[in-house]
Structure formats: C-alpha cells, structure tokens
Write a structure and sequence with these properties.
The protein is mostly helical. 71% of the residues lie in helices and 0% in strands. It is built from 4 helices and no strands.
Length: 101
Amino acid sequence: MPPTTMDAFRDHGKSRPSLEQDIDRAELTMATLERSGISIDAVTAKLVAEGVQLFADAFDKLLAAIAGKRAQTSATSSTAKPQSCRPSSRRRSRRRSRRAA
C-alpha cells in the first residue's frame, strides 16, 4: 500500500461500517452529480487508474529495495561457499539405508 494512503488514513480516516448509512442522502448526491454533468463512471475510472499506478509504483520501489539488498548480500558473501538446501549425498544414503531396514 502506498505510504501516502496509510498516512492519509492515519490522519483523518475512520474505520467504521458506513456503507449502509444515510442511503437517501447518497442517492441525492449521485443524482446531483449527474445533473451537474459529472460522470461518476469517468471519475471512478480515473481514480482506479491513478490508484493502480500508485500501488504499482510502491511495488516497484519494494522490488528495487529487495534487489538492492540481494546484491549487497551477494557482494558481501561472494567469498563464502554457497550452502545447498539439500542434505549431502552421505546423509541421503544413510536415510535410505534406515528406511530399507
């Protein structure tokens, strides 16, 4: 989530079940917008596009930070021998012999 979204919510957001409150007033507002020539569909499409771009930018920034950390870690550990996640062949053969017994 973009930091500006989190900051805005911390500043003036309120978490509450408000979707079903004052429906009549909401319908009046929507009708007034339409009569004024404001397309809620156009406004919504623009907000979605801008919101998606903000999320994409934040995600790209996160990926860049991860890549930077990975490169930094690789550079500092390039002299160390890479460790395998798999057990050594000796340990695998011991496991097989235990299962066979």
